[in-house]
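Two proteins follow. First one:
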Amino acid sequence: MEEQRNPKTREKFLENDRRKTWPGEELFERFLWGSRFLVLFAVISSLAASLVLFLIGTLDVIKVFVEMVSYYLGSVEKIDLHADLIGRIIGSVDIFLIAVVLLIFSFGLYELFISHINAADNTEASNILDIGSLDVLKDKIGQVILMALIVKFFQVVLGMKLENISEMLLFAGCVALLGVSLFLLQLGKNMGKHSD
């Protein structure tokens, strides 16, 4: 890692690379460098999938709102508002989080392989594009995926019926593990800030 940052080592590598050329090397290297544009397929596909998930989540929230209004107007049978509707709203939040993962993934791939997104400069949301390597991109995506899993766990818990002590202990253990994972996530963020 240190050698990559050292300008003398990079200079020595480039000098050595210039000496070892073969016919067609420059042409092949241009072709190879141009092949990075294949990433655009993943960028566009991720954006499209993100849009679809945002639409699905929005339509689910609208359905919940319509059902809630129908329930209070008395035009629908009695339903368990808390278990059913809140569970579906939490499911929509989960869908939105996965859509955000896809969005960050597409931004990150574009920034890493194609070009800096100039339109994001000097905007309040530009910090989501602080992606300097694939490791940083994986960390950002991992954080959002962890939050999506926590939301999904919360949705499942709403529908659970705890009947015996072992189920309650298992539930308490799961909650404790989620708390530890959130603590470690925050600890990792803080350590990352101090190392910069």
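Second one, unrelated to the first:
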Amino acid sequence: MFVTTFGQKGGVAKTCTSIHLAAHWANAGRSVVLVDADRNRSATAYASRGLLPFAVVPMEAAAKATRHADIVVTDGQASSNEEELKNLVEGSDFIVLPTTAQSRSIELTVEMACMLNKFDIPYAALIVKADARKKSSIQVARDVLQGFDIEVLRSEIPLLNAFENAETQGVTVDRAVTKNGRSDQRRMTGFFAYSQACDEIELSMPQRKVIPMPIGWNVSRLEDRCA
């Protein structure tokens, strides 16, 4: 399974989303590789301490590193370049568009969705940095996106200081600690939200067609067959 996070601007938790989607599946026992396709190498910097439960590799090393992976998460470039988008789309099964509830972020997500509609690829928006004190603006953002026929995941990623602490410490949010060295009280809220998003993504994935084996074909190994 190939999942890509993509956006047209920085500050929409694109790398944070990539990291935590990969972490959920890795913690579930899946073989996961995160491909850092962003020129800023944000995911590589995040993983530099070696504390994440999965490998992070640059785009140049992706072919070999992902050979035996169950799931490949790509942290895409923050760009509106249609050629870059086309290249990422061709290597994806599903695209996640992280977006905040701010109007400019919503506008850019709609523009991105319009470009994605040219390709036969499932995608969905994910509302991030959701401030619990601004539920009405979050609902407005959700309504606007859905008004443009954009699927919006039900999960919302809360606005938490724990995410900033986690990035500084090079860990996922469920392992974040405060400046005093104590476990951040709301850390699990953030990780659980991403876990729910992962479940939704898997449910939204198109089912692969199973091609029945023609009757009479022997598919056993040659060395196991009788002479």
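SUMMARY FIELD: Residues 2-224 form a domain with the Rossmann fold fold (CATH 3.40.50.300). Helices lie at 14-27, 42-46, 62-65, 82-90, 103-116, 135-147, 161-169, 187-204.
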